[in-house]
Amino acid sequence: MENVLNKEIKKIIDTCPEVGKILEEFGIGCVPCSIGSCLLRDVVGIHNLNPQKESTLMYRIEKAIYPDRRISEPKVGLSKKSTPKKISYSPPVKKLVDEHVLIKRLLAMIPTIVDYVMTSIKVDKDLILRCVDFIRTYADKYHHMKEEDILFKYVDNNAEIIQVMYKDHDTGRGYVRQVVEGAERGNKNQIKENFLAYRELLTQHIKKEDEILYPWIDRQLTTTQVGEIFRKCNESDASAGNALPRKYEKFIVEIEELFLQEVTK
Amino acid sequence: MSGCPGSKTIDFSEKTVQEGSESGKRPSQLRQWPIQMHLVSPHAPYFQGKDVLLAADCTAFALGDFHKDYIKGKSIGIACPKLDTDQEVYVEKIKALIDEAKINTLTVIIMQVPCCFGLVQIAKEGAEKATRKIPVKQVVVGLEGNILSEDWI
Lengths: 265, 153
Fold this sequence. Notes:
The complex is a heterodimer of chains A (265) and B (153). Chain A is mainly α. Chain A has helices at residues 2-5, 9-15, 17-25, 40-46, 51-65, 91-119, 125-149, 160-185, 188-220, 223-240, 243-264. Helix content of chain B is 23%, strand content 20%. The interface between A and B is medium-sized, with 14 and 12 residues.
């Protein structure tokens, strides 16, 4: 089993698709991952399952890969469900989780904005570019840069999960470029496809961060490091200025009110 | 049993479970003097930019690995929120530790008894009065030396 633990998850799932199903049963969503180069050992470790759940998972995986091997079943299985553990974040990580809330409010509006674009005679370029400004300045520069320049520096930058996060950020930037191009050309379909793709990507990305990555990082941080990250994030926010988050909160409220009125008309 | 949980008599001398090792010498991790909150100065060099432990007096006796797990790498102030007088001085000292000594973090370690939570209130008050913001952690120790919780507050 030791050599399987050190194999890339995608290769394991390709050879034995049953493993993907088992991981999904345990809330580990590796199957749709575009990279899949995390080692099985890290995949299991990062999810911080309770010992009973982890031993049941490992038993099921081993049994799926080596059906003829005699393996003793762990005594306590999934039938004895443990209470879901509430995630507790350190203060700097909590601040990043809180920033996700505003980003998620824009993501929630995207289908409505896309409908509006598709049914309008002319593309509302100003609206699209204001949304792009929110994404580029608040989500990317203000928020993602704190992750990339500060938080991720405290863990192994080459860890697959961190590489996946960098790739998501880059892919998102690509979609946003396409949205801008669509707005410039008045190409409604280009705006629609890329805005919706961005929404899907960021929704999954934020979920991965809130539920898996951030708790994993928090578990590795010392008290001293938490203090350092908190200070560096505060310095980064101070250099951006207090007006920046307020400006974008106001923008989100504005478009929520605008489109809520549209829907209720 | 009734009365104040902070002062009621409990005898666990019959406790037989003894995990861990008794072999070897354990060096002190204390790197400063004084330590009592009325005696320490927030301007002392050992506080500058450090991670600070604000410990309720009893915690050091309850926790077997207090030095190794909690004092190591930190500067310390000790207090008893039940018996100490002039506790408003503590609030001001915590404020000064945050604003002037620019400490990195504050960990408040208390016993599980209700009166001990007064020390967390003092820490919170000092932190709220301070202009700088820092992460504050609360650690609660059980009467038999077990860690009951460890949370950022």
